[in-house]
Amino acid sequence: METSLGTVFWSEVAGTGFLTLLGCGVVANVALARTKGLGGGFLMVNFGWGLAVFAGVYVAFRSGAHINPAVTLGLLANDAGVYAPGVDITFASTLVYLGSELLGAFLGAVVAWLAYRQHFDDTDDPAPKLGVFSTGPAIRSYAWNTITEIIGTFVLVFVVILFGRTPTGL
Q1: Rounded Cα gap, residues 105 and 126, in angstroms
Q2: Alpha helices in 32-79 (DSSP H)
Q3: Burial 9-32 (b: 16+ CB within 10 A, else e)
Q4: DSSP symbols for 13-28
Q5: 82: which strand partners?
Q6: In angstroms, rounded to a whole number, what is the distance separating the alpha carbons of residues 72 and 132?
Q7: Mean pLDDT for each consecutive 10-residue tract of the chain (170 residues)?
Q8: Of the candidates 49, 52, 51, 29, the residue with the CA atom closest to the CA atom of residue 40
Q9: pTM (two decimals)
């Protein structure tokens, strides 16, 4: 069964959007002033991001649920042949995946910002505001920080590729 690039586009926009909205939303809830979750901690953020990934994958199932350019590029580099059942790896399909993931992430971040706009306005410290949308190392060391990002990205893509090869095609 072939999946159209239009289906891929909207599936990845929605899945990546939900991932970003829910992930940034949990960080905003823990980090910004006068939220109910203020100070909820690292475990709450991790659990929230885990649910955000689950929701994003569930929403984007029709496209293979890449919801991350690292997954798309990892499948491309792995010479998988297809991005998802019925979606051949081509220049056009690669652009559709990458473009839709970028758009979905942007839209999800905008909606998270809108949802917490009053809390952003009420937070004086710029660090938690930035932390809603990005992370920074506790110890700044460009070489080691790069190595840890490579390790984390490798593990993510490796596990995703292996799950795709299971009998269930998870």
Answers
A1: 21
A2: 42-59, 69-77
A3: bbbbbbbbbbbbbbbbbbbbbbbb
A4: HHHHHHHHHHHHHHHH
A5: 88
A6: 24
A7: 92 98 98 97 96 96 95 92 93 98 98 98 97 94 96 93 73
A8: 29
A9: 0.92
C-beta of residue 16 within 8 angstroms of C-beta of residue 108: yes
**Region of 169 on the Ramachandran plot (φ > 0 left; ψ -120 to 50 alpha; else beta):** left
CB atoms < 10 A from the CB of 140, how many?
Answer: 8
For 92-129, b/e burial (b = at least 16 CB within 10 A) is ebbebbbebbeebbebbbebbbeebeebbeebeeeebb
H-run or E-run covering 115: helix 91-115
Q: Exposure pattern of 41-69 as b/e (b: 16+ CB <10 Å)?
A: eeeebeebbeebbebbbebbebbbbbbbb
Q: Would you say 128 and 37 are in contact if contact means Cβ atoms under 8 Å apart?
A: no
Is 166 in a helix, a strand, or coil? Answer: coil
